[in-house]
Description:
Blueprint: H1 2-6, H2 22-52, H3 66-69, H4 78-92, H5 98-124, H6 132-153, E1 161-163, E2 171-173, H7 178-196, H8 204-222, H9 224-230, H10 241-259, H11 268-285, H12 289-295, H13 297-316, H14 326-332, H15 337-357
Antiparallel strand pairs: 1-2
Helix pairs in contact: 2-4, 2-10, 4-5, 4-10, 4-11, 5-6, 5-11, 6-7, 6-11, 7-11, 7-13, 8-10, 8-11, 8-15, 11-12, 12-13, 12-15
Amino acid sequence: MLYHLLLPLVDQFTPLNLIRYLTFRAGAALVTALFLAFILGPPVIRWLKSKQGRGQPIRSDGPESHLLTKKGTPTMGGVLILIAMFFSTLLWADLTNAYVWAVMLVTGGFGLVGFADDYMKLTRRSSGGLPGRIKLAATVLFAVAAAAIIVLYTREPLATSLAIPFFKSALLPLGWLFVPFAVLVMVGSSHSVNLTDGLDGLAIGPVIIAAGCFALIAYLAGNSVFANYLQINHVPGSGELAIICGALVGAGLGFLWFNAPPAMVFMGDTGSLALGGALGAIAVVAKHELVLAIIGGLFVLETVSVMVQVASFKLTGKRVFRMAPLHHHFEKKGWAEPTIVIRFWIIAIILAVAGLSTLKIR
């Protein structure tokens, strides 16, 4: 909005030329979203508490400590993240860019699905919300729509090809299979973040780290000079997603202020599904889908732990972990919650550095 309002005035007032620079607008989006989250946080949390009464239902089969430490904490805090992120993006992004709307579609759509899931949990006073099949089908529909926009807007051969890390602009042509692949990335990323969201600050920290990484990746992929120098695929227009990433980082930091142990609010599925979907959509646009699996490796690890646990129990009747996802396993072993969160953040930082190294290793 501001981008379109101020751009015509650049010739009359030279300092406004800053609005042309993605780096300036990404930084402005971060600061705007952070400021909004700080300002809106207290009233939003008070409103959620007044509406939810006893707060988020706690799983009876989860760690015993949660029945004491988490009881009464409101959920749906993802609303705060989405408000700050959407407002900041609309303020600073180029709204004629189709990639921006594709990512916003996934973020908003997945957020609505998560909101419905959280609402059902609260009204039923149960940890079970939307049926899994309905949740999956709804997120797939939004992802298909976004994937179609991305394919239509991207030039060939990038539109329907998978970029291979470590090789110079190497592409694996998928044809019509690219759409289901892109859907898998977006939906898989969304549900992986959802599984990771189980302790105060655990999910939002790695999300902020991943968003910061993809702000850089989107900027580089959208710049022909940097893309050619690094020998990565140049995706015209993808640089605009750095604005969304900046807004996500700012909104995430603002939310973390209130979500740090002991949390005043949980993001709920409203936030986790939306943020995971946003990361997946940005990775698809920037042609770094496989790199997302490295940068977001912590989310992958949490998801794999659930898959291994379920498979092992069904096949052998035995559990590999004391409890899945993985962070609950360490809780059961007696690790303190802040210890788990900080150590998982360290892992996320290491994986982020490994993921960014793929930009130069060719």
